[in-house]
Design brief:
Length: 162
Amino acid sequence: MKFVRIIRDLIPYVCLIFFIIIIRMYIATPVRVDGSSMRKTLEDGDILLLYKMAKIERFDIVVLNESDDKEIIIKRIIGLPGETVQIKDNAIYVNDVLLEDDYAYGDTSNYDKITLGEDEYFILGDNRLISKDSRYFGPIKKDDIMGEAVFRFWPINKIGII
């Protein structure tokens, strides 16, 4: 009788733990910014909420697995699947149209014209001087994108939607 009561008392806690695990695996999870490649938008040590079910659009900040080093990196989407991207004279062109890029910090090095595949994205860090991004390792695959960083909850004085 006492055993049944203990089990019954534990069921809400087990359900809560299960619910949290499901959310972290499939919907949202926290991520920490490591480095300064997204400076001025994000700083080293910021903690963000990663939304795993987001529809990725231009200028979204995404978290992905970078295939060369097997590390998690955070960058901004510049080119979408099927688009042509070129960087010349510190300007980004998407489909031969100048892209208004208000996020960049520092000069953007040249990159020859490339047409993205149907599952490829072109990403750049906001701190163009030091960012290891598509200029370094080329376009990324959709499967490498873990989700979109949508909310900053650390530090407290910068809490809010990104």
